[in-house]
Amino acid sequence: MIIIVSLLLYYLLKQKLWCNCEICDAYLTLSWSKQFDNLCDWFTYLLKKSPTNTIHIHVLGNTITANPDNVEYMLKTRFDNFPKGKPFSTILGDLLGRGIFNVDGESWRFQKKMASLELDRSSIRSYALEIIHQVIEHRLVPLLSSVAATKDQNGVVLDLQDIFRRFSFDSMCRFSFGLDPRCLELSLPLSEFSVAFDLASKLSAERAMTVSPLIWKIKRWLNLGSERKLKEAIKIIDILALDVIKQRRKMGFLTHKDLLSRFMRTVNDDTYLRDIVISFLLAGRDTVASALTSFVWLLAKHPHVVSAVRIEADTIVGPNQNLKSFEQLRQLHYLQAALYESMRLYPPIQFDSKFCEEDDVLPDGTFVKSGTRVTYHPYAMGRINEIWGPDCLEFKPERWLRDGVFYPENSFKYPVFQAGLRVCLGKEMAMVELKSVALSLVRRFEIELVAVTPHRHVPRFSPGLTATFSGGLPVLVRERVLSPSLHDNFIT
Ligand code: HEM
Predict the structure, then answer these.
(1) Buried b / exposed e across 273-305, counting CB within 10 Å, b at 16+?
(2) CATH number for the domain formed by residue range(s) 2-487
(3) N or C: which end of the chain has fewer CB within 10 A?
(4) Rounded to an integer, what distance in angstroms lies between the CA atom of residue 448 and that of residue 477?
(5) What's the Cα-to-Cα distance from 312 to each of 309, 316, 319, 432, rounded to whole Å?
(6) DSSP bridge partners of 461
(7) How many whole angstroms from 424 Cα to the centroid of ligand 1?
(8) 424 marked ligand binding residue
(9) What does pTM read for this prediction?
(10) Radius of gyration over alpha carbons of the chain, in Å?
């Protein structure tokens, strides 16, 4: 016990845990929450006010920036000086092991090369599209239709955020492992794997929120409370993942199309394979669900955008016609613009941190001390006049279109998928998923928000790695009256 207390005291003395400046005081006393709904909104306010769009929170030893030049410097120019770093990899290490999401250096380079090679193949693209199609047509749409058909005078309220999380877990599990957890089948109990995965990602994220890492490390050492639960959840994930790998080795993996089977052709170490695939699952699950949740929320507040998406779909695909090809999906420029615009205002990963290896100076003149954290903040960046103009707070898909054609912006201005060398590897798959789900929903259903707190104009987020609406996204769903052919909307 004496050792633990001494370690804690040593840590507290080493850190600058007390600071009287206004910002640190507001942070420590939580007084910011009197004026702002979310921590990210308070940081946005501070970043907008700073002449360089960069701030420093002394008690956290954290530089936070919304300046695109700084973002480019960290993610590209001086990439090697701004790795994810040990503090981050320790937090997620028990769950992710040596998986791509959690490593730097050679191990990252190796996995990035291998994953890029696989994800660039057209065979994996059509496999991903096939899975997304199946989950939408055979799970998501029937589920929403059955809720819409319920004969209840007041309608049945559905939490769409929860449905999107189930959708992306089913899709990502099939894509990564070739496993079907059937989370979208509400009549079935949730699979042990999905419960364990949910718990493990939640508890791992909570580690990042403790005042000092020593607290969770001591709990882990003593196998107490949340750390004991985390260990148990990870054990369930390990058993299942390693069992799938063993079975796949026995039955042969050469003919399977999922990511795991593809990686098995190059990697022999089963634990390493488990780590690689679990990273993909984590990276692709909550992000997609988060993007869909805020998109539906914004659409409900902007009916003219819903009409424009429908008109474009009727023009490209044909009224009451099924989507016929991947190419048609690509031609939906307005839909792509609307999704990009939605993630500009509500990025699924609101902020992302790196650790500075050696003392450095950012392009705006900010000094960064070695061993400290530097965070870029896509949520704040989407709200900065100098980046997006005076109408930056408005939801305007048109800002991404030139003569009706979608034009991407500089990725350091819009680091929603990160940018530079470590840019998201699943960006294309994510866009196919988002467009496909959005198209199916908008063409077939009318979705009405049910106000949880009627006077709230902005969503309130729960703390975590990915933006999550606290209280979910309660909606009422009605089926639109369509000719029968559209009831099978997707590529056949
Ligand atoms: C709207 C959906 C998505 C968004 C906004 C998004 C965003 C991001 C961001 C910001 C990062 C950098 C995280 C960091 O380094 O700390 C990232 C990395 C990554 N993403 Fe995505 N992602 C999405 C969907 C997906 C999907 C569907 C997959 C899988 C197919 C995926 C796979 C990955 C992987 C493997 C990495 C790690 C790349 C590396 O470290 O080199 N993502 N993503």
Answers:
(1) bbbbbbbbbbbbbbbbbbbbbbbbbbbbebeeb
(2) 1.10.630.10
(3) N
(4) 6
(5) 5, 6, 10, 17
(6) 469
(7) 4
(8) yes
(9) 0.92
(10) 23
